[in-house]
Amino acid sequence: LVVEKLGPKPPEAGGRSSSPDRVWAPSYSEFMAWRNTNKRMQLNCKSISEERERRSRKGVLVVAKGFDASVPEGCTPGKHVFHLESMLRDHFSSCGKVKSVCIPHAYYSSTIKRYAYIEILGKKAIERALKLSGSEMDGHKLVVTPPLRQMKKARRKSLKTDRYSRSKTMDVRGYDTSLPRKIIKSALVKHFSSCGEVVEVEVMPNLRNPKTPKFAYVSIYGEGAKEKALQLNGSDMGGFKLV
């Protein structure tokens, strides 16, 4: 497009006018090229932002070592694992939302592993967690590192299975059964999150009407999970009392 006063013939394409009386606008092809370039830049910025958001939701994994794994007198290894995991959860809470803390432990073992896997959600979670390397927890210095190699999906699943095998499962009823199962699961996870890590919610169908949930199994992992969950008996969830 050319905006000009009457006068001499405009310069050839790509040229510029030296006359102060004429203002040259970019040609249509130049404008479209600029617009497409600008659009690509915006899409790139958006994809980077979305990728960062996805990573923050997915969470990062770090390994913490150096804590005292000796079992105090009068305490069982299983209970002490819960206690250590609770301390680690509090210690790393400043790094973001601590999704899970797991010290791999077999129920029959009398010794406790001296390392823990900690999964944290949030922006810059990995940087904040690594800064805690050298900090003290209960008088012992922690060493915090990323896993030596990227943990495969199967390994993450095995850690979850380990926590599930040591979790407490509750039979929950009384919620609004007219809601979709996905919404019920999400609401139950949020409602029982104060009791520990909710590792599994299974909404059981009604045999007479499979689309209508009958009750749910909620599996919670953590110190005192059973006692904390039972205290929510009769609590309100969306205007309905849970049993």
From TrEMBL:
GO-annotated molecular function: RNA binding
Gene3D superfamilies noted in UniProt: 3.30.70.330
Listed InterPro entries: Nucleotide-bd_a/b_plait_sf, RBD_domain_sf, RRM_dom
Domain RRM: 168-243
Keywords from the UniProt entry: Repeat, RNA-binding
Annotated segments matching region Disordered: 1-21
Name this protein carries in UniProt: Nucleolin 2
Organism the protein comes from: Noccaea caerulescens (Alpine penny-cress)
Source taxonomy: Eukaryota, Viridiplantae, Streptophyta, Embryophyta, Tracheophyta
